[in-house]
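User: Predict the structure for this protein chain, please.
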Amino acid sequence: MMKSHVTLRSSKWLDDAELSGFVHRTAFRSSGFSRESFEGRPVIGICNSASELVSCNLGFKDLAESVKRGVLQAGGIALEFPAMALGEQLMKPTAMLYRNLMSMDVEESIRAYPFDAVVLLGGCDKSVPAQLMGAASADVPTIVVTGGPAAPAVFQGRQLGVGTDLWHYTDAFRAGTMSVQEFGELEAAAGPSIGHCPEMGTASTMATVVEGLGMTIPGGAAIPAYDSRRQQHAEACGRRAVEIAVECVRPSRILTQEAFDNAITLLLAVGGSTNAIIHLLALAGRVGVPLSLERFHELSQRTPVIVNVRPSGEYLVEQLFHAGGIPAVMAELAPLLHLDAMTITGKVVGDGLVTPSAPNRSIIATLDEPFVPVGGLAVVKGNLAPNGAVVKVSAASPDLLKHRGPAVVFEDMDDLIDRIDDPNLEVTADSVLVLRMVGPKGGHGMPEWGHLPIPGKLLRTGVVDMVRVSDARMSGTSFGTTVLHVSPEAADGGTLGLVESGDYISLDARAGVLHLEVDEAELARRRAVLDTAPRRPRFTRGYQSLHDQHVLQAHEGCDFDFLRGRSKNPDQEPVGMLTGWIGGW
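Assistant: Here is the predicted structure, written as structure tokens:
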């Protein structure tokens, strides 16, 4: 492609013949670019979330170079800029606390600089939704490149996922059936390469969702991080970034109601992470698409799990890639998809589907013979969750999906840590474990603490699952009969804050019911007592104070109230906004 003959957004910075244009062009030339390298060419920003603190994203230096190659091939100029790095393992109290901050970082960077299009490089769980939310709000043409799953760990001759298998081994260690030496050997083996979790955790789920939304070139989600085809995919996305800059294909043209339905259908079919529910709700809120928890439930009632990947299945994402990847999954889902939905490729969804010549039915099943029948995700409501909560049915114990038992209440994570292995804890296998004050406000960002550990004394008797209820999230690699995202949370006045140990809780996931068997008069009495109790100190400064004041509840995606709704068209920015060079000189 030659230099663009359309009016580019960057021309507001670079085409002015007076002093303003002089200063902006000088900024490019001071960086070593000749005028010929940028004049009339689309300026493509590469939003890079690489960090040495986040092993998922360590390969992004090479990916960025591949994107730049593609941009150069197509006649553009590529400029890399950093984004805040969100890492699940080292970032405390949770990377989710900072998702909205990263989205603001991305949005304002895109809006402030002369980008005609942007390539998002994201990998670890919260990076991709944060970048998508920011780019969608800025509404400059955008394409996504995800980082890819890591190499599978191998321990005692078996391929492992990072999280799913770790939870099993951790239970074995706590139960005394795994030695300290074996646990140390597991630690040494658990992270053999860069890349995100190799099972269908939140990172692989979000990469899958990106394909379902139509925000990347099909086929990229499942390519392993260490496979050269990921670099080739990044290069192709760089070329396409130049084209969408010229064609002015904005996120608002792609992120439609039909795109969200496709993404949710795909999420359900792969047995993906419940975290994606929150991220899709937040993203829909940014682009003005009406989306509720009920829509997830509706689509779940017609969508089976057809991908046999942990934690809902047996294999890892690398095997899914070799079986045809997400395009092959979407081909099987074709009767359930909006095939005429537009994608970032300039083609509709139906044009990107690929059916392998010899499909591997042990990994990708058909709609007629799925691995898990319809209803792999359930939204439950009742007096304990008036605005809803979610249950990942596909990763739960079937015999616990309808259950009634007495509550064992933990006031917060500290209380749980102190008492969960207490031999005197009054708990049986029929108990319902309740953890509160771990939601968007109470847990300072809604940590992944919803996969409560089985009490130690029960583990030693062979109990491997129990009903667990919380206002937290859980890792996409987790499993078990967990009721998550209870809304409103305890810290926001939710009924969860009124539960007492011994109260009976009834769950019927398939019927969509979660009920606390306490009459309204008693709940009112408890609420009156709670309202007079001393309040926990809240944050009074900085970003965490902003978060506490403005974060929405889980059923609205935990976005900030002031970030919802479509932004102004970036092409309608006042010219005066681009004259800030005076203060910089």
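The domain at 42-151+193-352 is CATH 3.40.50.2300 (Rossmann fold).
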